[in-house]
Design brief:
The chain has about 400 residues and is α/β, with parallel strands linked by helices. It has 15 helices and 14 strands. About 45% of the residues are buried.
Length: about 400
């Protein structure tokens, strides 16, 4: 089960935002995230806000789409009443959980509500996450008919014993099949991988990378496994059933991924993400890293508009209760101060290939750049042109780079 939500100010029942949230909104993109918190089984490593059928406390999955649609309408009304200028959604992302546990018609209805509320910008990117065993060809065709443009499959690994450790239930042989179905339907395809699972060797990881590349997806994500407190995997490691993750091995795995993906024509554009070309980058996730605005729909979903961040009630039953009562589903929010916004700006923009503007750093951060170049952590040519762009070594030590940019030269 996911951990507690942040401690902050209570969110008002009417959801209205302070006047400052509207400042500069016309210069920021707007996205919509819809959280579908249902899973068939709970993976041992997962710390996301998700629930299996036995954990729903009387809430029905079949009612969820209608509840989310109510929040979409509520969101439109709140932004309008708060003076935030109307903007069409540039991106829509269905995440989870496993969104594709719901009928395709439910996802299409939810997407239609977003279209009705805000409209879509030209060429809007519309993505859903999916498990390889949660869709078939007909399901994917229905998504395309309903306006989806992209699917992100949770492949995680192609090696059976690694999938077993992660409690993933799909057959790795199914991944090429669902990718083919998605392409035939007309969807762009992303594959998500995880590395650093206890017991996973470098050769295992190579097998997963080569298997993913054999399907030639448009986009690949590769995330180092984080063992979150309270998860089944954390307890198994504490009991000695699995070894602790090996930082040096994970670094080797990252370097292998970058090498194989680069040789196959993929370019990194964020520390954990690669795309065949710029048009295949996840524009929705780029909106998070660039500090754009988004409305998050669903239990535990987070939203951000103009430096105001809020989050919904976590459990589907609590969420449903607020929706039925006509109240905002949000339970907490915070208005970020200037120092926090600057810290987050440096943290996020330094992770992407487009880089961070040197001139926007405080004096100490600008002075740190020469040392970062000397240490091989940022690209010299890009820095000379005024942008902080991480080298491969810098991506491995991204947190250290951020600390030096924020704290000044060492």
């Amino acid at each position: 089960m996911a951990g507690p939500l942040p401690i902050a100010d209570p969110a008002p029942a009417d959801g209205l935002l302070p006047p400052g949230a509207a400042v500069g909104a016309d210069s920021r993109a707007f996205g919509v995230y819809l959280h579908v918190p249902f899973c068939r089984v709970r993976c041992g490593y997962c710390d996301f806000n998700t629930y299996t059928a036995t954990e729903l406390r009387g809430v029905s999955q079949s009612d969820y789409a209608s509840q989310a649609i109510v929040e979409v309408g509520f969101g439109r009304a709140v932004l309008e009443a708060s003076g935030v200028p109307a903007r069409a959604a540039s991106t829509v992302f269905f995440g989870g959980g496993t969104p594709t546990l719901l009928p395709a018609d439910d996802l299409v209805r939810m997407l239609g509500a977003v279209r009705d509320a805000w409209g879509f910008a030209p060429g809007a990117e519309v993505t859903t996450e999916a498990n390889p065993d949660s869709v078939d060809a007909a399901y994917l065709r229905r998504l395309v008919d309903g306006g989806f443009t992209r699917v992100s499959f949770g492949m995680q690994s192609a090696v059976p014993h690694v999938l077993a450790t992660l409690d993933r239930t799909h057959d790795p042989e199914r991944v090429p099949q669902v990718v083919e179905w998605a392409r035939e339907a007309g969807l762009d395809v992303s594959l998500d991988l995880i590395y650093g699972t206890p017991g996973e060797s470098l050769d295992d990881w190579r097998t997963s990378l080569e298997s993913a590349l054999a399907s030639r997806p448009d986009h690949l994500s590769a995330y180092a496994l984080i063992v979150e407190d309270g998860t089944k995997l954390a307890r198994q490691i504490a009991r000695g059933e699995y070894p602790e993750p090996d930082d040096d091995l994970e670094a080797d795995m990252y370097e292998l991924a970058d090498g194989l993906l680069g040789a196959a024509g993929y370019e990194w554009y964020e520390v954990s993400n690669w795309a065949l070309d710029e048009s295949q980058r996840s524009r929705h996730n780029l909106g998070y890293w660039r500090g754009d605005d988004w409305w998050g729909v669903g239990p535990g979903a987070h939203s951000h508009v103009g430096g105001v961040r809020w989050w919904n009630a976590k459990h589907p039953a609590a969420y449903a209760g607020r929706i039925i009562a006509g109240d905002s589903p949000a339970v907490g929010r915070e208005t970020l101060d200037a120092d926090t916004r600057e810290t987050e700006r440096v943290l996020l923009l330094s992770r992407i290939r487009d880089g961070l503007d040197v001139a926007g750093l405080h004096t100490g951060g600008r002075h740190a750049v020469a040392g970062l170049i000397a240490d091989g952590l940022v690209e010299a040519k890009s820095a000379i042109r005024g942008r902080i762009v991480l080298t491969l070594r810098g991506r491995l030590l991204a947190d250290a780079v951020v600390r030096r940019l924020l704290d000044g030269a060492e």
